[in-house]
Amino acid sequence: MMGRTMALLGAVLAVFVVYLLLWPVPIEPTSWTTKEAPPLAGDFAPNRVLQGMELFTTPNAHGPEDVAIDAEGKVYVGVHEGQILRYSPDGASVEVFAETGGRPLGLDFDNDGNLIVADAFKGLLSIDRDGKTTVLCTETGYHPLGFTNDVDVDSQNVAWFSDASYKWNQREVMNEALESAPNGRLLKYDINTGECDVVLSELHFANGVAVSPDETYVLVNETMRYRIKRAFVRGPKAGWVDVFVDNLPGFPDGISTGAEGIFWLAFYAPRDAVLDGAAERPWLRKIIHRIPSALQPKPVRHPFVLGLDAEGNVVHNLQDVDGARFSMTTSAEQFSDWLYVGSLSEPSWGRIRVSTLP
Question: Which of 203, 190, 136, 129 is nearest to 163 (CA)?
């Protein structure tokens, strides 16, 4: 009897191993060499500054991924349920401003006061002061927008925005993360002319976008390469592309341009040792894809925001190493003396005074 049981267990185990190694998966992972993750020390030393944030709930909704503030100080957030919520400047009251029917991610205002929205499923949208939605762009450069992610509008009314992946959509985000192929793009939409063009292609999960204070270059986060690319778009260096910051300590998500030339960089989570170890092992990432999602690597609760100067040096280090009140930081936007922080998953967004930051 014991022998039969052991034989049965052995057969089950053999089938499971064959499944892990050979079962077809929809991804074709690429191999890449990553640097050792920098320790959370020095410029990245753990702290609990973000425990001091004032939090505002998103009623019957969650995931205020990005935050935008209009000229009157009203606060706008896009939530998982497809709504754009609008708060009074003090956050005391909230209303539904618009519904996109998709998943609004990046938000910014154009020069005419319209809210420009990077919607993961609907493309690049414009919502006027009355909440009326207009579709601006859904495809360019031989590909439809697959995963419209973030947007930043400059003084010339050009919307610079990212398409995280033209191959996988937001519901298939783990496919994109595990495949780690150059499916992302940096794009631009000229609001004055209606032209939509590709600025930079072959990015590895194109995410947050920020225009420099002098508007000569645009930063775009490559989440699955832990770095920020810089594309010069005006001036004597126009057409040049380089790496602004490399080997970051987490998954860079949103980035924005704040006061005094500071770029605010939000990390979805610190880096994961398993995913780092699988960078050069495509077969291992296929195995990760095959195991139940509950067993796949998960982000830890660790909100994390950096303030970077024009050379990429760290000037502010904001964290909550305990993840006590917030997690999955996806945006950080400065307006006056407030830094507004969004999240992909929380039922709230937060703010903290810049003048109180270490």
Answer: 203
Residue 2 lies in a domain: no
The answer to whether residue 33 sits within a structural domain is no
pLDDT tens per residue across all 358 residues of the chain: 666 666 666 655 655 555 566 678 899 999 999 999 999 999 999 999 999 999 999 999 999 999 999 999 999 999 999 999 999 999 999 999 999 999 999 999 999 999 999 999 999 999 999 999 999 999 999 999 999 999 999 999 999 999 999 999 999 999 999 999 999 999 999 999 999 999 999 999 999 999 999 999 999 999 999 999 999 999 999 999 999 999 999 999 999 999 999 999 999 999 999 999 999 999 999 999 999 888 899 999 999 999 999 999 999 999 999 999 999 999 999 999 999 999 999 999 999 999 999 8
Residue 148's closest CA among 118, 115, 190, 173?
118
In a domain, 151, yes or no: yes
The C-alpha angle 291, 294, 295, rounded to 5 degrees, equals 50
The CATH number covering residue 67 comes to: 2.120.10.30
- The number of beta carbons lying within 10 Å of the beta carbon of residue 225 is 22
Q: Is residue 11 part of a domain?
A: no
SS3 21: helix
Structural domains of the chain, count: 1
The two tokens of residue 20 are 């892990």
Query: 343 - beta bridge partners?
Result: 329
Give the structural domain span for 60. 45-356
